[in-house]
Amino acid sequence: MLTREQNERLIRTDRGTEMGALLRRYWIPALLTEEIPEPDCPPVRVQLLGERLIAFRDSEGRLGLLDEFCSHRTASLFFGRNEECGLRCAYHGWKYDVDGNCVDMPSEPPESRFREKIKQKAYPCIERGGVVWTYMGPAEHQPDLPELEWAMLPDSQVFVSKRLQETNYMQAMEGGIDSSHVSFAHRFNMDDDPMHAGTEGLTYLKADTRPKFEVIESDGGLLIGARRNVDDERYYWRITQWIMPWYTIIPPFGTHNPLGAHAWVPIDDETCWAWSINYHPTRDLRDDELESMHRGDGIHSRNIPGTYRTAANRSNDYLIDRKAQREKRSFSGVEGIAAQDFSLQESMGPIVDRTKERLGTSDAAIILARRRLLAAAEDAAEDAAGLPGENAEHHRVRSASVLLPKSVPFQEGAQEALIVKPGQDFVSI
Amino acid sequence: MLTREQNERLIRTDRGTEMGALLRRYWIPALLTEEIPEPDCPPVRVQLLGERLIAFRDSEGRLGLLDEFCSHRTASLFFGRNEECGLRCAYHGWKYDVDGNCVDMPSEPPESRFREKIKQKAYPCIERGGVVWTYMGPAEHQPDLPELEWAMLPDSQVFVSKRLQETNYMQAMEGGIDSSHVSFAHRFNMDDDPMHAGTEGLTYLKADTRPKFEVIESDGGLLIGARRNVDDERYYWRITQWIMPWYTIIPPFGTHNPLGAHAWVPIDDETCWAWSINYHPTRDLRDDELESMHRGDGIHSRNIPGTYRTAANRSNDYLIDRKAQREKRSFSGVEGIAAQDFSLQESMGPIVDRTKERLGTSDAAIILARRRLLAAAEDAAEDAAGLPGENAEHHRVRSASVLLPKSVPFQEGAQEALIVKPGQDFVSI
Amino acid sequence: MLTREQNERLIRTDRGTEMGALLRRYWIPALLTEEIPEPDCPPVRVQLLGERLIAFRDSEGRLGLLDEFCSHRTASLFFGRNEECGLRCAYHGWKYDVDGNCVDMPSEPPESRFREKIKQKAYPCIERGGVVWTYMGPAEHQPDLPELEWAMLPDSQVFVSKRLQETNYMQAMEGGIDSSHVSFAHRFNMDDDPMHAGTEGLTYLKADTRPKFEVIESDGGLLIGARRNVDDERYYWRITQWIMPWYTIIPPFGTHNPLGAHAWVPIDDETCWAWSINYHPTRDLRDDELESMHRGDGIHSRNIPGTYRTAANRSNDYLIDRKAQREKRSFSGVEGIAAQDFSLQESMGPIVDRTKERLGTSDAAIILARRRLLAAAEDAAEDAAGLPGENAEHHRVRSASVLLPKSVPFQEGAQEALIVKPGQDFVSI
Question: Of A71, A90, A108, which has the smallest distance from its Cβ to C184's Cβ?
Fold first, then answer.
């Protein structure tokens, strides 16, 4: 439970807000590289943290991310022509390069130097892990490039998708941090997914439906441990990484399956991008796995073709199937792990009123994540350097699922399992 | 004509408003029993007086009406599982009984007593006349159970339907109170309806198109008399009952036809439920009558299948047929008595600006109904007991249509006709 | 670039605003005569300058334009019956004539004189050039009737269409004033249109893509000269007329083609009517020309059948064709001259933020038009007479395209070409 004022601070991310200033201190997953696949392809609308932008790839393959609206008369560059190393506005022909320089201004006399005074807002971009990332913050604070494990692997080992979620980013991310909902929202679907099925972990998960949570601060965010009883001597620990400001990594089931991760990025205060990533550190994804991911299984979603909007959505009550609910094929009647999550999160309304919550011990991770974000926002407001999650070291972490003696704290027992070892397998049962 | 401030007082019904407090002193028609037909059926969203609620019928058949949003993290209970005498939230499994007690909280340790502190808002419900009624006010003021004639008859003698109206409840109810519009809005349709056709009353109605109105206060609301000249000695009186806060009964044509009644209940400030009821005090409804009512004839409406939204609605200009208007088959070109009313009421906008009206003598009933509601709202604000319409006695009334000598006041001449006599026929020509 | 306060003054046109008061000093193109084609035809909703109105043609063929909402209980007169020289409200039968007098009030007793107190707001209308015009301002300031050349020609020489534009009127009109966008937005489409093709003017237009602009005040608005180099001695001048408050005339290509003109009229602050007119002063329009105009070619638009809303619109990204853009068949990928304009204008949002613009020398006409409107609005606020564009003389002007010696100012060299000479051809190369 937050005060109204705390809730406001947490959720508002436009330029000029405290949380907006914090989030602009990080590299931001902006769009899929598949959206601007080749030189001089059509420009694409992108909205991030309330700012409306246009992404394009110029004739040399360079990435540009500009203010959507032309500096001249504010027509949208969505209608612009991507031609000869620049994007040319369709209204009067002003042309911009990827850095926002106005490189041609045909509406003015040739001798005019007006164009030198024009600078279209432009953000630097990089490409990594199938994602175009941008940095929208002050140049002096530009952090290390993103080094999340999935972003550093060869393309053949990674699958990335995104979907539009009709809630504030925080509401979506809280679902990613909160592993206690798994036992309910996904209760009847744990066995369906070949990525869980038949693992030792799943047996323990089902045997103890009331896990205890231990949450501790990591350098880059939080380590969220959920422990279940196995026998008199051992706990089964599932350890989730939350990396500031919006990354989560799901604890694995077995090592033969790909890992899963997410990013939750504000579009505006009432919508966000839910990014979903499967990856395997030591092998290519198989064709059958890729086919299933493309279909929208598991943590991915069935999107309306040609869009990143889900087929099951608020306008159709997420295609709820009351028969499936009655027959215990789906706890809420909604089909699919992802849709089970976002249907519930969206059911709270686009911005949840956190003054009305009644939080229990299982909500510890959510409470601490909010606290850490609010504290970091205060640091950012004072222009502090070295925020959690800024350093590439903070990215090089893994989630894990392990058996440990009851006497061993999970962060010690799993210490090595929680660090990325390039080329080496992860730890999971 | 009202002042802006009076209009605001009249139309706002959320918790915390003056009119909201008044309306919460009465039993409220909440939903059709057919919407939650059997134990453990799917829960249903219900919105009343601005409050978003979930209705369900538990394993024992008990009725529950809870705050829609789970006390824990405010996910909607619409996705909840109705199981073993409670509704279980699909997010983390908190489970509530019909009284709002949290009867299971599986996300917390077994020893936790947190759940005892949780109370989901819950309103008492009863079932009567095919309707689930609820009471949303203070326990100490809970009034008599509803005893409207139609609510007390065997199922075989009653037909109830509802439709969504896209206006404030008051605008809809004013149409029910105002019998002077009948001569215009429904002008060319009076003969179509077998429920009017061929009665003596209809002959008199058509012979004098400028009725005079006399409105007097009854114990529970208003008696609205519309008198028409028959000959030198007699008036034809049509007497409408308005029962606080939202019930109207239509004066009958003949005694062989069923009676008609309405209730007008706020969903929020811009929409309401229009309830329409046909009933006969002394006989079962016939199959042909029921078929016609199911089809949406008369005071009922043609709804989009599977919904309570009308097929003719604002988005399609109520399927207006200008040819029918030109050829005098419908005065406004809209088909059906109900649609003729709600099309005009919605055409004023969701909340009519009553500061712009120019009211005449034929609007006397509307003027007095507003006044009585505003006065009762003041009484309720002072926590007064004994509001009009609270007492079951106030419900046991009938409308009537009678011939009376010109010298006899209608409330005297029709006195006996205006009281429910169980098992006895009503008075009508 | 304007201050926020100037922008607000420019765009707000509801009753009570400064610009609203100015625009109400002129005759307003309100609807096409084809919308109310014959006596007693159905009434039509019309919104102008934020006011919701109903247009009808009475039994005698007289034009009425009334407040949409009945004085009695504010039901919409859209559902009214147009009968026997008046429009009768469908709710209680109050009937109004074209002057807004209440000519029948059947809900009140015959002896009542209440109806004499009722006056429905009504605006005078005239019919000219296929358009119904109205005057919404103070009677003492009613100006000359509109005498734009196209409004005074026989029907056979004129074609008028309208379309809904989802922007403020000013944003649309700025496109009509601004001829510098032609070289880009319409770049690849100049040859398609038989109305331009093969003219001497088009050759010069394409040879010099950086015209210089000279803008001077005319009695009724602005003369906007765009000059291009032809050879050492001559300029090719294209001269646009802007007539206060919302008319533009396109400079012609050749004299064999019809002329083109526009009017840009506020519906409310976020939408406007874009009127498009083709006309020839000395001959009938040909069948093939009319066919093409009906189809929506040239300055007209392809509308959704039965509506004045364009088939290509914001909801479908104007049916943008990226292949056509890549292959240089359309600069923005949008098809059609009109759609190329309104897509870009709408892309700025319904109300452009003029504090963010960066205007160059090619924007001189826009700058001066804004200035003149704001100045006239100040005059109107002081109740001044003789505003630019009020006098019929101001309407009797033409645009022109001419070759002139470099030493001759365009307003002198083209002086005669810029005046309407009834029955005589216009001047164009």
Answer: A90
**Dihedral angle, C-alpha A289, A295, A300, A306, nearest 10 °:** 140
From chain A, the residues in CB contact with C210 under 8 A are: 106-110
Which among C120, C141, C162 is the end of a domain?
Answer: C141
CA distance B102 to chain A (A): 12
Read off the CATH number of the domain in which B196 is found. 3.90.380
Q: In this structure, which amino acid lies at residue C59? A: S
Rounded to the nearest angstrom, the minimum Cα separation between B82 and chain A is: 9
- Residues in chain C with CB shorter than 8 Å from the CB of B322 are 42
Among B206-210, B285-289, B390-394, C156-160, the minimum mean pLDDT is found in: B206-210
At position C265, the amino acid (one-letter code) is: V
**Alpha carbon distance, N-terminus to C-terminus of chain C:** 35
Structural domain boundaries enclosing A124? 27-141
Q: What percent of chain B has pLDDT above 70?
A: 99
CA distance A57 to A44: 10
pTM score of the predicted model: 0.94
Give the minimum alpha-carbon distance from C354 to chain A in angstroms, rounded to a whole number.
Answer: 8
Amino acid letter, A179: S
Neighbouring residues of C190: CB distance < 8 A, sequence distance ≥ 6: C182, C196, C202, C205, C206
Cβ contacts of C54 within 8 Å, gap of 6 or more? C43, C44, C45, C46, C64, C65, C66, C67, C68, C76, C77, C78, C80, C87
pLDDT at B194: 66
Give the ranges where C335-423 is alpha helix by DSSP (H). Answer: 337-347, 364-381, 392-395, 410-413
Say what the pLDDT of residue B304 is: 96
Q: What is the pLDDT of residues C236-253, one digit of tens each?
A: 999 999 999 999 999 999
The span from the CA of A363 to the CA of A358, in Å, is: 10
The answer to whether residue B198 scores a pLDDT higher than 80 is no
A69:C348 CB<8 A: yes
Cβ count within 10 A of residue B12: 19
Whether residue C83 has pLDDT greater than 90: yes
Cβ atoms of residues A40 and A82 within 8 Å: yes
The helix (run of H) or strand (run of E) holding residue B133 is strand B131-135
Q: Residues B196, B47: one domain?
A: no
Question: Of the ranges A302-306, B194-198, B307-311, C350-354, which one carries the lowest mean pLDDT score?
Answer: B194-198
How many separate domains does chain A show?
2
Per-residue tokens: B146: 């509803």
Looking at the predicted structure, is the pLDDT value of residue B206 above 90? no
Residues C281 and C409 in one domain: yes
Instruction: Give the residue ranges of chain A where pLDDT is below 70.
Output: 192, 194-195
Question: Which chains are within 8 Å of B by 3+ CB pairs?
Answer: A, C
Residues 6 or more apart from B234 whose CB is under 8 A from it?
B403, B404, B405, B406
Q: Which chain A residue has the Cα nearest residue B118?
A: A358
Per-residue pLDDT band at B123 (split at 50, 70, 90): very high
Residue B405, classified by CB atoms within 10 Å of its CB into exposed (0-12), middle (13-18) or buried (19+), is exposed
Cα separation, C128 vs C44, whole angstroms: 18
Is there a single domain that holds both residue A410 and residue A316? Answer: yes
Closest to C162 in 3D by CA, of C53, C291, C269, C301: C301
Nearest C-alpha in A relative to C326: A81
Residue whose tokens read 């309720």: B380
Number of H helices, E strands in chain A: 12, 18
Say if strands C247-250 and C234-243 run parallel, antiparallel, or are unpaired. Answer: antiparallel
Give C68-129 as a DSSP string. SB-TTT--BGGG-EE-SSSEE-TTT--EE-TT-BEEE-TTS-TT--GGGG-B--B--EEEET
Residue that terminates a domain, selected from B123, B141, B159: B141
Residues B369, B216: Cα–Cα separation, whole Å: 10
